[in-house]
From TrEMBL:
Top-rank lineage group of the source organism: Bacteria
Transmembrane spans: none
SUPFAM superfamilies xref list: PRTase-like
The family this protein is said to belong to: Belongs to the ComF/GntX family.
This protein's name: ComF family protein
Lineage: Bacteria, Pseudomonadati, Bacteroidota, Flavobacteriia, Flavobacteriales
Record organism: Flavobacterium nakdongensis
Amino acid sequence: MFNFFDKIQENLLKLIYPDVCNGCNKLLVKGEAIICTSCLHELPYTFHHETQINEIDRKFYGILPFSFCISMLYFHKSGIVQNLIHNLKYKNKQEIGTFLGALYAEELKDFERIKNVTHLIPVPLHKKRLHERGYNQIDAFCESLAVALDIPLEKNVLYRNTYSKSQTKKSKTERAAIKQSLFAVRIPYEFSAPHFLLVDDVITSGATIEACAKELLKIPNATVSILTIAYAQS
Ligand SMILES: [Zn+2]
């Protein structure tokens, strides 16, 4: 009986708030979820994992020692991916992360180098931001990947240091020093030659990833790789 009323309520809610595609805002039809079939077919995959040397490799070459760097999709202004990331980040639609994680895990099934990864590490959100938003936008994506690829998710190793409030009053060198120490690592248990896969939403300048990776590399015998939902060409 309850199911019957639940169903009515669900349908009424759908009439008032119909499900729309998170990529293009068009109404979703029966059988579609998260994004419409058209957007699903138009997702701009990078195929980084099938390329010998990709754009991110070039970006970090000589700056960061890493095993591999891959992004799932290309990020274009006012494109499907920008809408997906926006909805994931600001509209509390974590199901987008879950969906993309599962989709990417399927792509990565035959990617041999990911099989050496020992831990998935999400780029942490600052505590204050986490409190305001209530969630880290990358967590659902990470959890989905972790389950599908059978790699443990480790949220306690990398963390963000507390912000210094009046940064503007500080000198340029002081600010640079603060920027460098935005992230830090703690070692909750003994690692033996860990291979950390650092996961973030969008890679643009690469500064955040670089700062995180450098901290992770302070752990003895650590290897770092990078994976993001999207790559913004600059
Ligand atoms: Zn669409």
